[in-house]
Amino acid sequence: MRALRAMQGDSVDAIAWRVYGKTRGVVEQLLQHNPGLAEHGPVLPSGTLVKLPDLPADPAPAQTLINLWD
User: Fold this and answer.
1) Which residues lie below 8 Å from residue 70, measured CB to CB, with a gap of 6+?
2) Which residues contact 49 (CB under 8 A, 6 or more apart)?
3) Is the pLDDT of residue 61 over 70?
4) At what angle do helices 12-20 and 26-33 cross, to 10 degrees?
5) How crowded is residue 21: how many other Cβ atoms within 10 Å of its Cβ?
6) pTM of the entire predicted model
7) Strand 2-5 relative to strand 49-52: parallel, antiparallel, unpaired?
8) What CA–CA distance (Å, rounded) separates 1 from 50?
């Protein structure tokens, strides 16, 4: 498990987007792995240590094939 320190103006969702490239489901996992993090409010104090869990890879999206001609 990695960790990082929050920069000035960081929020949990900003860290999720910067590190994982998405926020859906990630914010919840960050809060779960960092008890008490939500108590800081929407903007984290600069220098707050945030543990970054290893998340499972997203499954490949199913491709829909389109038939242009019969």
Assistant:
1) none
2) 3, 4, 5, 6
3) no
4) 110
5) 9
6) 0.78
7) antiparallel
8) 11
